[in-house]
Each structure stands twice: as C-alpha cells, then as structure tokens.
Amino acid sequence: MTVLKTSMRNFLAHKGRMALSAVAVLLSVAFVCGTLVFTDTMNTTFDKLFAATSSDVTVSAKKSSDTGETTSGNGKPPVMPAAVLDEVQGVRGVKSAEGTVFSTSVTVVDADKDSLSPSSGAPTIVGNWNSNDARTMEITSGAAPRNADQIMVDADTADKHGLKLGDELGVITAVGTHRAKISGFADFTVTNPGAAMFYLDTETAQRTLVGETGVYTNVNVTAESGVTDDRLKKDVSAALDGAYKVQTAQEVADANAEEVGDFMGVLKYAMLGFAGIAFLVGIFLIINTFSMLVAQRTREIGLMRAIGSSRKQVNRSVLVEALLLGVVGSVLGVAAGVGLAVGLMKLMGQMGMELSTDDLTIAWTTPVLGLVLGVVVTVLAAYLPARRAGRISPMAALRDAGTPADAKAGVVRAVLGLLLTGAGGYALYLATAADRASDGSLWLGLGVVASLIGFVVVGPVLAAGVVRVLSVVLLRAFGPVGRMAERNALRNPRRTGATGAALMIGLALVACLSVVGSSMVASATDQLDKTVGTDFIIQNDQTQPITEQAVRAVKSVDGLERVTEYKILDADLITPDGERSKNETINAADPSYAEDVRTKTVAGDLADAYRPDSMSVFEGFAEEHGIKIGSPVKVDFKDGTTATLTVRAITSDEVVVDKGAMYASITTVAKYVPAEDMPLDILVFATAKEGQQEAAYQALKTALHDFPQYQVRDQTDYKEALKDQVGQLLNMIYGLLGLAIIVAILGVVNTLALSVVERTREIGLMRAIGLSRRQLRRMIRLESVVIALFGALLGLGLGMVWGATAQQLLALEGLKVLDIPWPTIGGVFVGSAFVGLFAALIPAFRAGRMNVLNAIATD
C-alpha cells in the first residue's frame, strides 16, 4: 500500500511531465484499436450487404465466378438460356424464380461524355431491375424503366454528378453504346458499397449487355416455407443435371466475404504494422521520460533507501507509475480509436462508400488488446529506468552520485551495438550478393532488423561524435549560446541517443522507401526508353477490355503507320517433358508487336514467334521444362481447343516490360478459340507516321472522345502516370509513418521539457550572470535542432543503405537503375531542423519565464 501511495503521489506530482508520454501511448493504442474497429465494421457492413442481396439459391453460368462477378474476356457476361428459368420454376420447393442479367464490364457516361464510374475503384454495375434489388433499394423518385428509352440510377451516383430526371445517359459495352433517359432514382436501404448502379428493363439489358435476348446471367430462386437452402440447392442441381453453377445464399455471401476479406486483411495488417512502428518509437519516449524522472529524484530515492525501502520497493514504485501511465494512456487510446474509426468511415463516405455508424462493430477483444498492448509496452519500457533506480545505493543517492556501473554499462552497450551493426551490415552485404531475389529478401530483412537495433544500441556512442560535427557546422556560428547548446546535447549521450533514435526509425523507413520508389520509377522509365518503340498506348486504368468499337475508332485515325492489338488468354500448357502447367497466360498480339516492344531474347527471334502455329516462352520456363528452339508445346486454351505450337523464341528474364510473358499471334490463336469467345484487347499500341506524332496524338484523343474510359498516352504521359502511381502509394505510406514521426516529436518535446526542469538551478545561475531570455530560448532551440538533425542524419543514412540494398534485389527482377532522390532526402533533413525548432517552442518558452531567484534557490 505504501508503494502504491508513493507511486500515486509521484505520478500526480509529475502529471505534466507524464502527459506527453501518455499521448504517445494514446496515439499508438488509438491506431491499433481504430484499425480493428474500422476493419470489423467494414466486414460487418459487407456481411449484411451480402446477406441482404443473396437469394436463397442462385443459378449462374458455369464460367461465372463464385462471387457473382459478371465480367469476361470478351466484355460480355457469361450467360445461360432463358429456358433454365422455366426448368427451375418447376422444381419442387421453389416458391418463385426470376431471371436477371448484369454486367460490370461497362461504362456509363452523361450527356457531356463524362464517365459516371466511381473514382474509388468500386464497380459500375448495369442490369435489369428485379425483385432481388427491390429488397435492398427503394425507388425514391420517378419510376423503374419500362422500355428501351429509360434507365434508373442509384441516388448516390445521381447526387454526386448532379443528375436529374430526363437527363440522357450512354451505356457503353462490348455490344455498343445504348442511350436512354433517366426515369427514376433508387436509394440504398442497406449500406451503399460504393458501386454505381444503373437499371434497364430486362429485354433492353439483355440486348445492351449481351447482344441477344432470351438469356440471363443469374436466376434468383426463393424457397417455399420450410424448405432449407441446402435442400433446394440439391433439388435444383439435380433438375439442371449439373450443367450450371448452383449456390446457396450462404455460399454466395461467403465467397463475397472472402474476396473482401483478402483486401481488408492486407489493409488491416499494414495499418497494424505502422502502429507497431509507432509503439517502438513510443518506447524510447517512455524510457527517456522515466530515466529523467529517476535522475531528478535521485536524492529522494536515497532517502527512501536510507529509511528502509528495499531495491524491490523502489523498483516497484517506478513500475507502478508506468502502470498508471499505461492504463490512463490506453483507456484514452481505446476511446480515441473508436473516434478514429468513425473518422475513417466518414472519409470512406467522401470516396463514395457510405458506411453507417449503426454498423459500428467493437469486438470485446479490441479494447482488451489495446489495454494490454499499451500497459505492457509502457511497463516494459520503464523496466530499465526502474531497475537503474533500484540499484542506486543510499549514500550515493544522497550525494547525487551516479551508479558505479554506468561506465561499464556504456562499454558493454558500445560493444554490443557495434556487433549488432556489423552483423546487420554483413547481412545486407549477403543480400546484395544473392543470385535470387527470394533468397536475398531474407538477408535483407535480417540486415534491416539487426542494423536498426545496432544503431539504437550504439546511438549514445555515435551521439558524441555526430553532435560535435553538427555543432561545428551549425552551432558555432551562434557563439557562446551555440557552444552551450552543444554541451547540453552532449551532457547525457544516452538521452540524446534515445531521443534521436525515436526520430531515426521513422526517417529511416521514409528514406528507404523513397530510394526504392525512385529506383523503381527510374528503372521502369529506362526500360520504357530501351524497349518501347511505339508512340502511343491506349488502355483502361481499371483493366477493363477495349471494345471493338473503340479499336475501330483508333484504326480510323489518319496519320498512323500501324496499330497493334494485344490480348491475354488463359491456357494450360503441356510441355515436352510431359508436365501440365496450369493457368498460364498467353499474350496474343499482332506481329507488329515485335517492333512496338523490343523484348530481349536469349534464343531465336521474337518476330518468328508470330509466325503461324508458333509461340515464344520465357527463359525460366524453358529451363524448367527443357524447352529449346523448335520444341513443340501443346496449348489447351480455356475457351477453345488444344493447339500444338512450335517454340520459335525464348525471351530473357532480365526485362521489366512483359516479364515472364509467352507470345503468339492473334491469327494463330483465332484458329483455336471461337470468335465469340475471343477476348477483347487489353492494350492497343499506335505508331504515327514520321513527323506526324503531335497531330496523331490529338486525333487519337478526338477519336476516343466517346469512350472516356480509355486513356491515350504517349511515352511521356505513360512515365508520368507510372510516377504518379508510385508517388500515391509512397504518400499513403508516408502518411501512416507520420504517426511514428509525431510520437518522435513528442519525445523531443518531453526530453527538452524534463531537461529544463532538471537544469532549473543552472538556468537561474546563467540568467543571474547575464544570459538574456532570448539567448536562453535560442540555446534550447539550438539544442533541439541538433538532436533532431542527429536522428535525421542516422535515419536517412541507414534508410539509404537499406534502399540501395533493396534495389540490388530489384535488379535481379530487371529494375537495375539505382536512383537516390536527393531532393526528397535533402528536404527531409531540412524539415527535421524545423521539427527540432517546433519541438523546442514550449520548453524554451517555459524556460524563458522562470523567475531567476526562485530558479537559483531550487534544490
């Protein structure tokens, strides 16, 4: 009880100093709990959606997916004849059955030819209005479509694009473009999944999406009362003789949930990973806080020991303070995490996915995990300072002497840090020497962990040298004030090292990812310059195929020398060694593709692969199956028959564009795949006649004005798009790493604030002999800047080494250009100086307000 009272008294006495440490715990716990609540809520939302939209039993074509996805390579959904509906309606136990037709391989445009597809990447769905949709949507204005001239739109899409009743829309599909006027709006009665929904009458939907009537993509079946879904599925399957896919509502919901769960799982663990980094950074803050509090209470601890307190009691007193800090920070963090999850839901709403707080899901494990993590991390971080406090002898404490083992501990720390850093460096060297990226990645991971821990451990040793160098460059110009700031930073190297290490971790990751991202863009750009010989690339960024109408529009452009079509087909390959390689991809293109993309070969000429009944394979596949030039390979096309093709070229694995591709000509493939099953192009290449590039570029954009879903890019545009994609990914990662950097900034603030308290008497004496308030504030700011730059220098240096090592592994995959983004590195370094200035504002202000006489009188 005495220990608890003492701990409570100390905790409340230093509540201001504990606040920033509590904020660090709060932020880390909030990120963990917010991630869990957000992902659990998303899963609950989609589970309800899938349960609401699934009929008791669903019948679909064999080629359709388990999730009900209705796209296919030819741009049309897989369908079944309307006669299936009649057969299903006659099955025992069927209360009702309804045929539906839907497709997601569509684009809908307004009167100005602007796409109405969601910017979030959610699908655009066009289908017939049916009773299953009426369960989850309510017509709020106008009426459902009754003829070919009418279309109904979901209310969210209408609001987003300012659509009104009577506005004309165009539905672009593989069949053609259908135009209709808005007849009504339907609002979601469940959570809007973010999709854009458009409804036609049944016959118009069939003609628009499939090109023929009398077919359906699905038959939705409702069971009679007392008939289970499993029983109904069995009876329907028997009646259809297994010719079609039959699923219960639970099976459809599970398939959809699994697909969403894969994405949510990646998002969840990525965000938790960044929360873990923030926890790691927070550990340094807590260690520093308790180390300084213990140091400031050295005489108090000595008195406690002198009147009979044991080492265990002193140790326990500090740990109880940490426990209180962890509990307070964690409880607030759990509450903040729920708020963060709600904020993320609002953000998703801005992106088009309306998530209701009615579905907010807080599993009992979430607050428990947040509390356990916060408390355990805080107590573990405080263990070393607590142990150090317990080891102080009463007499040494009463005369403010340090522990006799400090010097020895410093030597042990230095040796251990150097050994870990050396081990990490050697692991990174082994990563660069690996022959395969998969082997090198293991060494890279070990090297990153070992070198990071090594730098953290050896930080106090490095602080003495690095701070002196930085001081010569930056602080000496400020005269005596700069020298005092230098001495303050060097006074306690362990403290400076720990404070700098917190910032080092976040900046090391920033530097590493910057180098990797910049090198990827530079390597891809270099490969494009070397391999792409065409002027223009036409594609859809959402990977939708390019319709035949759009291809014809491209070919009609004057000023083009050639147009190359490019398709992808799935096939099983039976190699000369007798093995069957399943689910391989055949890249079918016009023979001019060999000119458009100059792919390196290790045997044969790629142009020969486009001869009749010929193909190419890539180097690794050829080595694995003993394939040589002239070897026959049986190609069993999924949507066609089996062909025997002769290998005419073997492409190198040291490429980036189409790495691992196997080529054949469209003419060859067309012999074995029926025209109705031939996939649409996923890319179209166009090359202008000499000197007509600019005119052809503008003409292509004009020709595709009616097809806004496709982008026309020249090589400059393509490089910029690639750079933007990598940049967007890096910016998202930087944003998540920002949490760790915020915690690191709190660490700098806390260290300086406690340092000011620790030096109260010294500050009073300096003020008494003539140091002005402005000089005092400047001294503290300069100390903060040099500590921040120390951490930045270590972090950026370490991160660039990690990034360069990772690039060497990427070089094994063809990305051979190492590019150091010096503007980014320099900007981060300069930004770290401003971080130091910002972190010192409050401590410097408080120091400047000290009363000189009271400060001198402080004991």
Automatic annotation (TrEMBL):
TM stretches of this protein: 269-295, 318-342, 362-386, 407-430, 442-475, 496-517, 732-757, 782-804, 824-845
Instruction: Give the membrane topology.
Output: Multi-pass membrane protein
Domain MacB-like periplasmic core as annotated: residue spans: 19-238, 499-700
Claim: Protease is one of the keywords in the record: no
**Domain named ABC3 transporter permease C-terminal: which ranges?**
274-394, 736-851
Q: Which InterPro entries match?
A: ABC3_permease_C (IPR003838), MacB_PCD (IPR025857), Macrolide_Exporter_MacB (IPR050250)
Can the keyword Coiled coil be found in this entry's annotation?
no
Question: Residue ranges under compositional bias (Polar residues)?
Answer: 60-74
Record-linked Pfam families: FtsX, MacB_PCD
Provide the family line: Belongs to the ABC-4 integral membrane protein family.
Name-wise, this protein is ABC transporter permease
